[in-house]
């Protein structure tokens, strides 16, 4: 089901497992400030060392080199998206804003998920 949440498209909810914590939300945001293109992301829970389970935004469909070159702008976009979806996530799923952290590039999350 596609939902528009404060200008952020919530494309689908894909279940990786049986619990809500295994849910992966797919997001799209039309950025007209920095890149003038649609920014796509996953929003999922990961275990963060010294903090425990946290929800993180994961930049997709951008090369890692491009992400590094423009990391400041991507972090600003992630912050904007977090601010836009946090009230919805709290209302619908009981999230606290502190549970949502800014993310990283997909190669750092998915390829390093077992790099502990």
Description:
A hairpin with a 3-residue loop joins β4 (37-48) and β5 (52-60). A 6-stranded mixed beta sheet has the order 1-2-3-4-5-6. It is α+β, with helices and mostly antiparallel strands and 116 residues long. It contains 3 helices and 6 strands, in the order βββββααβα. The relative contact order is 0.17.
Unreliable runs: none
| Number of β-strand runs | 6
> How many helical stretches?
3
Largest sheet: 6 strands, mixed
> What order do the strands of the largest sheet run in, or round the barrel if closed?
1-2-3-4-5-6
Radius of gyration: 14 Å
Short description:
Helices cover 29% and strands 41% of the residues. The chain has 116 residues and is α+β, with helices and mostly antiparallel strands.
Descriptive keywords:
116 residues, six-stranded mixed beta sheet, 29% helix, alpha+beta
Topology of this protein?
Blueprint: E1 3-5, E2 8-15, E3 23-31, E4 37-48, E5 52-60, H1 64-69, H2 71-93, E6 100-105, H3 106-110
Parallel strand pairs: 5-6
Antiparallel strand pairs: 1-2, 2-3, 3-4, 4-5
């Amino acid at each position: 089901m596609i939902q528009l949440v404060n200008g952020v498209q919530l494309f689908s909810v894909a279940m990786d497992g049986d619990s809500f914590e295994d849910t992966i939300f797919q997001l799209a945001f039309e950025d007209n400030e920095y890149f003038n293109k649609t920014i796509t992301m996953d929003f999922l829970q990961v275990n963060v060392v010294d903090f425990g389970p946290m929800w993180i935004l994961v930049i997709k469909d951008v090369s890692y080199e491009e992400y590094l070159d423009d990391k400041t702008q991507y972090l600003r976009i992630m912050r904007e998206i977090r601010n836009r979806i946090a009230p919805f996530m709290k209302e619908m799923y009981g999230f606290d804003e502190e549970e949502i952290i800014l993310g990283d590039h997909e190669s750092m999350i998915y390829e390093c998920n077992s790099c502990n």
